[in-house]
Amino acid sequence: MSESPGKISVPCDVNGEAVTLRAYPFARLLDVLREELKLTGTKEGCGEGECGACSVLLDGELVNSCLVPAAQVEGANIQTVEGVADGERLHAVQQAMLESGGAQCGICTPGMVLAAVNLLRHTPDPTEADIREGLAGNLCRCTGYMKIFDAVIHACKK
User: Fold this and answer.
1) Which fold has domain 92-157?
2) Mean pLDDT, 10 residues at a time, the chain of 158 residues
3) What CATH number has the domain spanning 8-83?
4) For tag attachment on the chain, is the N or C end more exposed, with fewer CB atoms within 10 Å?
């Protein structure tokens, strides 16, 4: 790999695997994940931290990867939508999204899945209000949200 002037090495853990990212310090984590690691499940919706399509779990906290500079993830544990399933076995949230039609165009789906996984880690038996709050930072233009909320409720029962 040829050295690019200004790029830094950023050791971190992505989906359970130790990696060293080579990126410009203020490159967006979103771009580094997609371009360097080819983890294209993380989507860009707005690029301004308003839609949640680029959500990842950073040290267990749901963040918009379009707002996180690469230099900030040194030593961090990052989970993308690609790291949610257990091999070929989908996470209960992913399976429920498929079964209830919660995934439409797919732009918001990875962020919604990670927000729901995060919610269920903290609140295993959420109320409808908990689900609405847990998914509040994620925008969807296709479903009207009800199928997504139904998917989270269905995942709780599994």
Assistant:
1) DNA polymerase; domain 1 (1.10.150)
2) 81 98 97 98 95 97 98 98 95 93 88 96 94 93 85 87
3) 3.10.20.30
4) N
